[in-house]
Design brief:
The protein has about 180 residues and is an alpha+beta fold. It is built from five helices and six strands; from the N terminus they run ααβααβββββα. It has one domain (about 5-165). Strands 1, 2, 3, 4, 5 and 6 form a six-stranded antiparallel beta sheet that branches.
Length: about 180
C-alpha cells in the first residue's frame, strides 16, 4: 500500500467514526473551525486516577473532566492492565457480542494504555473524543472514547482514529463527493 492509499484509508476511518457519533463532513464544513476549537494535551498531573461515577451530568465538562471520564470508562470496561470484576456493567462495542463476558474482558485486557494521550472537542454539538494509545503502540493510531459535551453517552469509537487529529495537528476531513 502506498502512502496516499494509507492516508485515504485513515481519512475514511475518521469520517466513519464521526458518522458513527452523529457527525458528518457536511456538519463539519457548516460549522467551520468552531467545530474544532478545543484540543488538550494530557498532563500526568491533570489525569487523576480517581474513579468518575457514570451518573448523568447536566453541565458541560472541561477537557480535564472529559479525560477523567474516559480513563474511568476504559478502566471499568477492561481495556487496561487492571483486572475488572465481571459483575460490573459491560458496554459492548459496535458489532461486539459475547455470551461469556469473562472471555470478552480477557480479550480486551491490556489493549489500551490507562492514561489518555489527548482530548479534542469536535462537531456542531462539541462532543469529546479522548484518545488512548494501543498496546502494542501503533504509530499515529489510537482508539477514542467518545462522549457528548456533558460527558454523557460514553462509548468507544468503532474504528481507530488518527493521533494527530486528536492532538489538533491536521485539518477536518474534507467534504465527500456526492457521485
Amino acid at each position: 500500500m502506498n502512502t496516499k492509499s494509507i492516508l485515504s484509508y485513515l481519512l475514511v476511518a475518521v469520517c466513519l467514526t464521526l458518522a458513527a457519533c452523529g457527525e458528518t463532513a457536511d456538519n463539519q464544513e457548516k460549522k467551520g473551525d468552531a467545530a474544532y476549537t478545543e484540543t488538550t494535551t494530557v498532563d500526568k498531573a491533570d489525569a487523576s486516577s480517581a474513579e468518575t461515577t457514570p451518573e448523568l451530568r447536566t453541565t458541560e465538562v472541561s477537557p480535564q473532566e472529559a479525560v477523567k471520564i474516559a480513563e474511568a470508562f476504559v478502566r471499568r470496561q477492561g481495556y487496561t492492565e487492571q483486572k475488572v470484576n465481571v459483575s460490573k456493567a459491560i458496554t459492548f462495542e459496535q458489532g461486539e457480542f459475547a455470551s461469556d463476558t469473562a472471555k470478552l474482558l480477557d480479550n480486551r485486557r491490556n489493549t489500551l494504555q490507562a492514561k489518555a494521550m489527548g482530548a479534542r472537542q469536535y462537531g456542531s454539538n462539541f462532543s469529546w473524543a479522548v484518545g488512548f494509545r494501543q498496546i502494542p503502540y501503533e504509530n499515529n493510531i489510537v482508539r477514542a472514547v467518545m462522549m457528548d459535551s456533558l460527558g454523557n453517552n460514553v462509548k468507544i469509537a468503532p474504528q481507530v482514529v488518527r493521533e494527530d487529529w486528536i492532538m489538533g495537528n491536521n485539518q477536518p476531513p474534507p467534504k465527500q463527493d456526492e457521485n
